[in-house]
Amino acid sequence: MSSDHDHHDHDHSKLSETELRVRALETILTEKGYVEPAALDAIIQAYETKIGPHNGARVVAKAWTDPAFRKALLEDGSKAIGTLGHVSRVGDHLVVVENTPQRHNMVVCTLCSCYPWEMLGLPPVWYKAAPYRSRAVKDPRGVLADFGVTVPKDTEIRVWDSTAETRFLVLPMRPEGTEGWSEEQLAELVTRDSMIGTGFPKKPGAPS
Amino acid sequence: MNGVHDMGGMDGFGKVEPELNEPMFHADWEARVLAMVRAMGAAGAFNIDTSRFYRETLPPHVYLSSSYYKKWFLGLEEMLIEKGYLGREDVAAGHAVQPAKALKHGKFDLDDVERVMVRGKFARPAPAPAKFKIGDRVRAKNIHPATHTRLPRYVRGHVGVVELNHGCHVFPDSAAMELGENPQWLYTVVFEGRDLWGADGDPTSKVSIDAFEPYLDPA
């Protein structure tokens, strides 16, 4: 491909080589009749609106308030979440792992970027990047320190490497001082990172 | 394959740097790449394991220096060329100049969008009884296939314990090479941190992988 400097067309002068190549590929796939560009727009819109950590937060908050749901969730995550009509369809193979005073769970995909999209949205860049993928399994406490997170010395750290089509969601511990809170209030405390295991839920009254 | 994608346990990549208020996409083209990969996969041009394999086979320096969606783009383009859906002449021209190849599930249009937003099902009927049960000690095989595998290097040769049985799933090592689904039992196998990383390893850490039965021997 010629260098970007050869492009004097106004529209293209600001586009990177990657942007030009991506545009060209979409043009080709469209011209060949493989994809409808409006369908690509719709996929993007669906990712931008339907999935995200709000789904996971609702599940965690319900588990904190409903012992029967919590039990069902830990036994079969996909099945239990399937009973909640308002949560994006999670599909099969979701495993929910519970943090306790004895054990802190953390999820990684060392080989690529496997992540529970329906529950948490698309993964952040750090989750897909080399520092996290390389160190999470060897030095989990060091990685947690990068997030400003400290887990007590005698707590077991369990790292789940997502090497198959199973997906893992961490059920964090319910923050103290939230007795009597509604599911909606509790869901506000549940952060994305607390469901990956690289953070804790917000504390009541802490700035959001 | 023993590629740079198999990063577990490597040193030297530095600190994890979370980005505050990270946007879903950092540029519009990233979203287009994601959508094209999802659409072409759903149309039947490739399966998820093949798409992973094409990203893994990017030259190591390209893999390490490319952003996430750049890797997706490069893998997608190469895979579509090798599978015959795209010609190098098309790419050079920036337009379709060669005839199209029929897609297994036809053109991807608006009616197909709902389908890609639901996770696929990977469980399959079991062709044989499970060899291992929960609590069994197993050794990850010391294997080094040059093709796609989901057995990370850092566990090979090490002994762990079967903790969960997920049933039979599509076997990525076969599916990636388009050799069929070849369903295999899938287990969560947990290893002690010190068994994996030696005496310097964190004694409070345990690491699990999800391992297909052909990756495991009794221990």
UniProtKB/TrEMBL annotation, chain A:
GO terms for molecular function: nitrile hydratase activity; transition metal ion binding. It is an enzyme of class 4 (lyase). Transmembrane segments: none annotated. InterPro entries: CN_Hdrase_a/SCN_Hdrase_g_sf, CN_Hdrtase_a/SCN_Hdrlase_g, CN_Hdrtase_asu/SCN_Hdrlase_gsu, Nitrile_hydratase_asu. Its EC number is 4.2.1.84. It catalyses: an aliphatic primary amide = an aliphatic nitrile + H2O. Keywords: Iron, Lyase, Metal-binding. Pfam families: NHase_alpha. Fe(3+) binds at residues 109, 112-114. Residues 17-198 form the Nitrile hydratase alpha/Thiocyanate hydrolase gamma domain. NCBIfam families: nitrile_alph. Belongs to the nitrile hydratase subunit alpha family. This is nitrile hydratase. It comes from Bradyrhizobium centrolobii. The lineage of its organism: Bacteria, Pseudomonadati, Pseudomonadota, Alphaproteobacteria, Hyphomicrobiales.
Automatic annotation (TrEMBL), chain B:
The keyword Lyase applies. InterPro entries: CN_hydtase_beta-like_N, CN_hydtase_beta_C, CN_hydtase_beta_dom_C, Elect_transpt_acc-like_dom_sf, Nitrile_hydratase_bsu. It holds the Pfam family NHase_beta_N. Its EC number is 4.2.1.84. It catalyses: an aliphatic primary amide = an aliphatic nitrile + H2O. Residues 123-217 form the Nitrile hydratase beta subunit domain. Keywords: Lyase. It is an enzyme of class 4 (lyase). Residues 1-103 form the Nitrile hydratase beta subunit-like N-terminal domain. GO terms for molecular function: nitrile hydratase activity; transition metal ion binding. It comes from the Bacteria. NHase catalyzes the hydration of various nitrile compounds to the corresponding amides. Belongs to the nitrile hydratase subunit beta family. This is Nitrile hydratase subunit beta. It comes from Bradyrhizobium centrolobii.
